[in-house]
Amino acid sequence: MLVRSVLGVCNAVLSFSSLVPSAFAYSATTIPSITSFVTNTTREPFGLDPYTQIVVDSRYADHGSPSLSTFAQTFRSDLVDITGYTLLPQVQVASEPEDNSSRPTIFLILDSTPNFTLYNGKDTDEGYLFEVSREKYVISGAAPIGTWWGTRTLLQQLVAAENGTSFSIPAGSGRDNPGWEIRGWMLDTGRHWYETSFLSDLCIYASFFKINEFHIHASDNLWIPQILYGLDWRTLYSGFRFQPPDGSPVYDLVPRRNECWSQTDFMQMQSTCAAHGVTIVPEIDTPGHSLVLSQWIPALMLNGTPDSLNLSYPETIPTIKSIWQQFLPWFSSSQVSIGADEYSASLADEYISFVNDMSDYVGSESNKSVRIWGTYEPSNTSSVSKEITIQHWDFPDGDIPLQLLRSGYGVINSEQAFLYLDGKIPAEGGFPQSLNETLLWSGAPGGAGWAPNIFTTDDATNNTTPDDPNLRGAIFALWNDWGPNATTPLETYYQLARSIALFAEKTWAGSGVRSTELTQAQFDVLYPVMNAKAPGQNLNRVVDTQYSDIVYQYDSIPSYPFDTQVSSVGPPYTLTFSVQLGPQANPSDISQSVLFSGIDSTLYASSLTMESNAEFYPTTFTFPAGVFTSVTIKATREYTYAEVQPEGEGKETYWWTTTLNIWGDYLTTANMSFAAPAQYVGCQGFEGTIRNVTLKLGV
Description:
Oligomer: single chain
Number of domains: 3
CATH topology of the largest domain: TIM Barrel
């Protein structure tokens, strides 16, 4: 994790009080908004200081998985991250905090007495009470997860209350719980490779806003009809992200061994997410979106459609079950997704039989239940089991959610009209890069805001009520239809960051249900503050500076590689340097032409190529031999370009771009945004001289 800073992103948000209109209620200082907080003006506020003690009630310290103690340890780390109080005492376990009025105390306990319910009347263990006085801040959760969400509220209250280096929260009492059980986001990792370290950071970030599910779409393929349904279908990009161990009967399923997660890495990510209150729900998508299986065993595919499997072929279902048998022991979630979307309606009965069979199989093997994407399959003889949760996504063509709910199915709302995103340039009439905020704040029927009970934008009779007993919640989805070269991982974060916070408000509080819900104006003020201070990760790639806006500056580089100790810098930034390639340099040898590198990107002299996430983005520039060339790189979250000027020549500009194939209909060019390759100057064996290096914030 990079060193956090009060510069860059944080520069404008040190004093929350200067940003929040005085008319805002105190309960409107967190995302998502809390159910209630009644201040007590007759009592002194709770003042946090560097010696604040965190105490876990010894009666409940080991309760839960993760346990209350585990959550407390993570909370302490987050508290240090936000406050800078590096000498904060270690977490204590005691029946009562020490009676020390001079030391403020945060007391974490469990209390099953309060009755916390979702909007549909079902009990939830995610609720909590909190009591704030001068000496104590007490969080009482219905279960450890409830207490954990209470710590998120406390942290956000501290961010809102920060005044220089001091923190003060008004005395009073509060109560809070979510309106819906499922509040999550989905990321298409089947068509875009991501390291588990990045995905773990996304979990940590989302947890700050009380998001509780991360749906990982772990297998899929690009859809370019000319290739998919042509002779070269075996060459079309597909991905399967779980790495079978050596000797596994499904070992050869994975097409790219460098683009899959080992069991150790996946389970560590799963554990990290769980320690922050986020459950990973894995998806292996069959019998559609299954090119990766057909490329492995061509006999499995449906004739003429390599991305669909032939369920009548004797080996198809046993093969699918063998995949799940291999990986089910990895998954700690109580539900998994088997995908099951966009399969031929002419094979409805086979499809329904397969879905029910897989539900039974997963249940018998692991005691887990399954989810499927809502795909209407016309059949007069059979139906999908009501033990299966339907993740609705396409009204009205895929299914009719109101009918599903009334028929007794558990439903998750992922309606594409509200909740589908896509990486980079959308196709004509395609999906946006981030959630349509106008639509979510006021685009529901009658001008109301969106909530999980809203499935259509115009006809309220097709929607349900917040208290529908079978409505489980909502998940928004970011697809990577244009493939692995369309975005860098950090660009994915830029797409998700604000949408996660807005979605958290809409799925925790709802829309028009509680009087304390945030308005759009309140959210717009709160979000930059909370994003800049979200603890436990540094996806914004914020760093300290040497002075003013200068991250570092070197007139000369003593040896290569030279370590600046700055692993990455997020945009906006400007990187300037001058380089002369040596007489023995071979710019075409990319392995020997590293100019700069960091954890997120690498810049090569060869064609002034930028690399991120194992994807290469060259320009048309070639460094001339024997002379110094001045280079200035400027980056924002929307683009990155270089101004280059060899000695004695004019200045030219080169943009880093990518070419996207939009479903085989046309090619389009899109700009790329890269974090600065900030840590190393040059590489082992670099031939040449790099000098006059300056990296500064801003463009």
